[in-house]
Design goal:
The protein has 579 residues and is an all-alpha fold. It contains 22 helices and 5 strands. The chain has helices at residues 8-12, 33-46, 68-86, 95-116, 133-139, 146-156, 159-176, 182-197, 213-244, 258-270, 276-301, 307-316, 325-340, 402-409, 414-423, 437-454, 460-484, 490-500, 505-517, 524-543, 549-558, 564-578; strands at residues 124-125, 128-129, 355-359, 371-373, 385-389. α6 (146-156) runs parallel beside α9 (213-244), α14 packs across α17 and α17 (460-484) packs antiparallel against α18 (490-500). The longest helix is centred in the middle third of the chain and has 32 residues, at 213-244.
Length: 579
């Protein structure tokens, strides 16, 4: 599944580090749009959660100030940038730069609204959280000099302070009634226990330091004396005082101001004004449509029995499961190469950047999703894209879903999109980021659907697997809104998946923990996909024989990312120009 559903935590990994006095908008010169974009992106790069990936020497900048005072400082600076954008002379802008301004202005509005909700009170959301941040940064880090290595160790020294600030954020949530339910806490506790249990000498934070043994030894001592105690303190707090105040209800609407917060998250994640009730009904309609398609596929196999019997057959027949971790990776690799062979028929612009397929690190397997595209990498800096696959619990990783997940996570889904974004230097950086779930995940779901045209699904089982993953996303629309607004129980939410998809039990439980911990994001996948499908049909109907599927796909991916309304305007303009 796509990079992970973005949460407030992941979203702040890309927001600007607007520290006091950093942006000087006063003075004689009035900033123009390129200047404001440059300033925004400069401070986005300086945000400590990202620094060190693109330039390892900057890893010494430390960790973000996510205290209430630090967030208030960001808000003030964001508002200054917004005011400067509003003051720009519209007549001096082109059609394209008006899009840039409108989108940047909208991004800032969302950031400010998130700060106003004090969403840092949720410092973790099941499988993602502050406890994973040092590890995710280490895995993306290549140190090219001893100075880089020392900078990374210096940054590691700040982890205890960063963890302490996150505990304070969680405590503020406890005091204000903003806590997670036990099902989310359980995942966070399991991850922390796994991190603490691993031998210090094998800690992934040491991996980038292997070429520098003396510095690595210093870092190992630091983990033993400072970082492990900080992790133990975090575990003790989350599994103790925090768990004692866990909210009893699953839905976010139960916390003070929770419904307003959920409505905001829907606007942010879908980039639309769709209400929870509208999204719920859209999801139910998609469930009915996909179920009818599933019934046709089952009938084509000659299978005799009920739908439940069919699902039981798929979940238990050993032919549908790999017998080794390596074997599962090989199945994904074979599917990816098969897809590569037909991509040029559907795309005239493809990235130079390759990708590799790797297993999810063992310490993260429990509670981790089935598969995840890790982004486009960076060809110029020597990084391949990564497609990570969960190779645990092989009896619950069905092979008939491999083609659909490969299309979604790798090519032409997340990897293709991310790599093209990296290579598209004509767009400003904020349009090449990966913030917008509706665009990013909508495209990846569209890529799964495209697999039918491409001939990727070779038999009825793989076709059903694709429908099962599509049904999974349709059920998300129903379940997310059902849990967070309509008061659904865990069993009712689980039943929606168990009765309509071939998802294994462990996958259902993993996904439900994500939806409960990170409200709203799960619905954006289908919202985005349905919009892209709608736009393609509009273009096909308007252009007839002049419709070029490769040109349409190139147009969508050339946008980097945009809210759905802005993407729609782009496609409408393209159609008008082609007539």
């Amino acid at each position: 599944m796509a990079p992970a559903i973005p949460t407030p935590i992941r979203r702040w990994c890309r927001v600007v580090a607007l520290c006091g006095g950093a942006l000087l908008l006063g003075g004689a010169a009035t900033p123009d749009l390129p200047d404001l974009i440059d300033r925004y992106e400069h401070f986005a790069e300086d945000y400590p959660m990202e620094a060190g990936r693109s330039d390892p020497s900057r890893a010494r900048v430390g960790w973000p100030d996510e205290t209430p005072a630090g967030m208030a400082g960001r808000k003030a600076e964001l508002q200054r940038i917004a005011a400067a954008l509003d003051a720009l002379d519209d007549a001096a802008l082109t059609d394209e730069t008006r899009v840039d301004r409108a989108y940047l202005r909208q991004l800032i509005a969302w950031r400010v609204e998130g700060i106003d909700f004090d969403e840092r009170r949720f410092a973790f959301v099941a499988h993602e959280g502050f406890y994973n941040t040092p590890y995710s940064l280490a895995r993306g880090l290549t140190l090219r000099s001893e100075a880089d290595a020392r900078a990374w160790v210096e940054r590691m020294r700040g982890i205890p302070r960063y963890f302490a600030e996150q505990r304070a954020n969680l405590a503020r949530g406890v005091a204000s009634g903003w806590t997670h339910p036990a099902v989310v806490i359980d995942v966070g506790v399991a991850i922390l226990r796994n991190q603490i249990a691993q031998p210090v000498a094998e800690d992934p934070m040491l991996e980038p330091l292997k070429p520098y043994p003396a510095i690595a030894a210093e870092a190992q001592r630091l983990i033993e004396t400072d970082i492990r105690p900080a992790q133990r303190e975090a575990l003790a707090y989350i599994d103790g005082p925090y768990r004692a105040k866990a909210r009893k209800e699953l839905g976010i609407a139960a916390v003070p101001g929770g419904r307003a917060y959920y409505d905001f998250l829907l606007r942010y994640y879908t980039t639309t004004d769709l209400t929870a009730e509208q999204i719920h009904e859209m999801g139910l309609a998609e469930v009915r449509r996909i179920r009818a398609e599933m019934d046709k596929v089952i009938a084509s196999t000659g299978f005799e029995g009920s739908f439940a019997d069919w699902l039981r057959f798929l979940r238990t027949d050993p032919r549908f499961y790999a017998t080794s971790r390596e074997g599962l990776i090989e199945k994904y690799a074979a599917a990816a190469k098969r897809i590569d062979g037909v991509l040029p028929r559907y795309f005239s612009v493809l990235p130079r950047q390759p990708f590799t397929i790797v297993p999810v690190p063992r310490e993260l397997e429990e509670g981790y999703t089935t598969a995840r595209g890790g982004g486009g990498g960076d060809f110029e800096k020597g990084f391949a894209g990564t497609f990570v696959v969960n190779t645990s619990h092989l009896d619950q990783r069905p092979l008939y879903e491999v083609p659909a997940l490969s299309l979604h996570e790798a090519a032409p889904g997340h990897h293709t999109h991310g790599a093209l974004n990296n290579e598209n230097k004509a767009l400003p950086g904020f349009r090449r980021a990966r913030d917008l779930l509706a665009f990013r995940e909508g495209w990846a779901l569209y890529a799964e659907r495209l697999g039918h045209e491409m001939g990727v699904y070779r038999d009825a089982y793989e076709t059903f697997g694709s429908l099962s993953t599509e049904m999974w996303r349709a059920c998300r629309m129903v379940v997310d809104t059902g849990i967070h607004v309509m008061g659904w129980s865990y069993d009712r939410a689980r039943q929606c998946f168990a009765e309509n998809t071939a998802l294994a039990d462990i996958n259902i439980d993993t996904e439900l923990a994500r939806y409960i911990g990170a409200p709203g994001g799960a619905v954006a996948y289908k919202v985005g996909e349905l919009k892209i499908v709608e736009l393609r049909r509009r273009a096909e109907q308007a252009l007839g024989d002049r419709f070029d599927i490769r040109a349409f796909h190139d147009l969508i991916l050339a946008q980097g990312q945009l809210p759905m309304t802005m993407l729609e305007a782009k496609v409408d303009a393209w159609i008008a120009a082609k007539r």
